[in-house]
Amino acid sequence: MIPELLDGSAQAIAEAVRTGTASAREIAQGTLSRVKTRNGALGAFTDMTVERALAKADAIDAARARGLDLGPLAGAPYAVKNLFDIQGLPTRAGSKINRDRPPARADATVLARLDNAGAVLIGALNMGEYAYDFTGENAHDGPSRNPHDPERMTGGSSGGSAAAVAGGLVSIALGSDTNGSIRVPSSLCGVFGLKPTYGRLSRAGAFPFVASLDHVGPLARSAGDLALAYNAMLGRDDADPAQAHMPATPVSRTLAQGAKGLRIAKLGGYFAQLAGPAAIAAVDTLARALSADRTVELAQADAARSAAYLITMVEGAAVHLERLRARRQDFDPDVADRLIAGAMLPGAWVAQAQKFRRRFRVEALELFRDVDILLAPATPCRAPKLGQKTFMLGGREMLVRPNLGLFTQPISFIGLPVVTAPVWTAAERLPIGVQIIAAPWREDLALRVASALERDGAVRAPVAKYA
Amino acid sequence: MTPESFDPEALAEAMATLLGLTQTPESRAQTIMHLRVAAEHAEKLLSVPLDDREEPAPVFTP
Fold first, then answer.
1. Nearest beta carbon to residue B34 from set A300, A328, A337
2. What pLDDT does residue A89 have?
3. Per-residue confidence (pLDDT) for residue B5, from 0 to 100
4. Which of A354, A458, A464, B2 has the fewest CB atoms within 10 Å, counting from its CB?
5. In a domain, B7, yes or no
6. Is residue B57 situated within a structural domain?
7. Nearest residue in chain B measured CA to CA from A332
């Protein structure tokens, strides 16, 4: 029974723990055992919090014995990208350098909130160094491997997060997304990922990359679990100065309302021109399932991607300049040279990029007067092979590392909420994701559509068969 | 500086000194490659006309 629960949803685990069908300790022990067995092949975990997990599980079981409320995620195992502060561990953020930092004195805000909801932290997850990555490869810890084909990339930078969920190691993982780092690995590993609106969830205690663009969010094997995790993490936190003063509206009540009545369109132009056949087929599949026959254009998406690219280079370089001076040799060379280049760029370019960001936002909001949901590919293709440096896009050979996110980057540039939903076309053993994009602060609509597609069988996130 | 007049080799040379960064020949070549990519992106961005009164996105709230 425990293995079936671990392959299922966090929601089902919490229900089993609440009703006493399974104890939180049995779930935690089963999860820890799975991680020990499977992690060698997946490279998903970099740290395990065994004592903490068992202590938390025991506390949940004791609370149940006393008849207390256990929370909506009671006993559900989760893990976090290793850029989130975990009390007692140095926050490595995928780097060698950060391992010398003192252990974090407290959990990141979103961890504390998941714990309050009853979730059980299992450990920290592999990621691309300092989150400057779309591949899931890591020069220090080795790559995270795609559970559906371990010779292929997970995508990054939240690669361990997607591998842990797709491999059935945990029900929910947390990632961060600056330009696509939740959505790209969700696409390549076939899991659901939520990048909320910029400023929605607290980033306090997450190691920074690009303050203008950094988001945090959950990955899971169902839209319902994304919603549960998202609800648990909502709420004001003065420790994140970028957090917006918006009401914390839970999405549970609207999740089952279906997609009927919503105005849904495909994004054409830039998003259709560079997408490969699998990406186009996946978007078309979901458009058909939703009876969405309109195609609209988000003008200047190409320039938006370029602006995000330049802001990332410059702000990322500013975060790491002192480390580049003092410990250049301890960086992943692929990351260091991009950061060094970013430190050299003209300031006027990034100032112009921030001006364009406001303009592009106005144009996107205009589009949302006429539509509720936009569909676009999450990645241009399915998972490339590990070590693959280039691929063909639109007839041109391009670098994999910076370009796997060329469809996610214009969307996060203006902070729109997105659910990435996994599509499996006939006879294909690798998934590919579609971005379900909503207007700012309408996570509820993106989750509603993902949930409706899941109920119809158009999207799904099975645990990898090999596992 | 405009993308048309962009000289990544000269920029890398001058800025490495200014920033106090020492680079191996391999690292310097990679940095120059990334500067070229950045210049391509800047060209796309700067081709979009923006009014002088256009405000940047971030708003600082004291």
1. A337
2. 98
3. 78
4. B2
5. yes
6. no
7. B27
Beta strands in A271-417 (DSSP E): 294-296, 373-377, 390-393, 396-399
- The complex scores an ipTM of 0.94
Number of domains composing chain A: 1
Does B60 fall in a domain?
no
Instruction: Quickly state the pLDDT bin for B3 (edges 50, 70, 90).
Output: low
Domain containing A418 equals 2-455
Provide the 8-state DSSP code for A206.
B
Handedness of CA A307, A310, A314, A316 (dihedral sign): positive
Domain holding B40, by residue range, is 3-46
Number of Cα atoms under 13 Å in the Cβ half of residue A407: 34
pLDDT along chain A (467 residues), means of 10: 96 98 98 97 98 98 98 98 98 98 98 98 98 97 97 98 98 98 98 98 98 98 98 96 91 94 97 94 98 97 98 98 96 96 97 96 96 98 96 90 95 98 88 98 98 98 84
- CATH code for the domain in which residue A142 is found: 3.90.1300.10
Strands (E), A340-413: 373-377, 390-393, 396-399
pLDDT in tens, A310-337: 999 999 999 999 999 999 999 999 999 9
Q: Name which of B45, B51, B53, B60 to mutate to probe chain A: the one with the most chain A Cβ atoms within 10 A of its Cβ.
A: B45
pLDDT at B58: 67
Name the interface residues of B facing A (CB cutoff 8 Å): 1, 11-12, 15-16, 19-23, 26-27, 30-35, 37-38, 40-42, 44-48, 50, 54-58
Which residues in chain A have Cβ-Cβ distances shorter than 8 Å to B12?
Answer: 341, 344
**Per-position b or e across A294-317, b if 16+ CB within 10 A of its CB:** eeebbbbbbbbbbbbbbbbbbbbb
Q: A407: which 2 tokens? A: 């469809």
Within-domain flag for B56? no
Chain A neighbors of B1, CB-CB under 8 A: 346, 348
- Overall domain count for chain B: 1
Task: Say yes or no for a CB contact (<8 Å) between A340 and B27.
Answer: yes
Q: Is A338 on the interface with B (CB under 8 A)?
A: yes
Query: What positions of A carry a catalytic annotation?
Result: 81, 157, 181
Going by C-alpha positions, the residue among A453, A460, A394 that lies closest to residue A432 is: A460
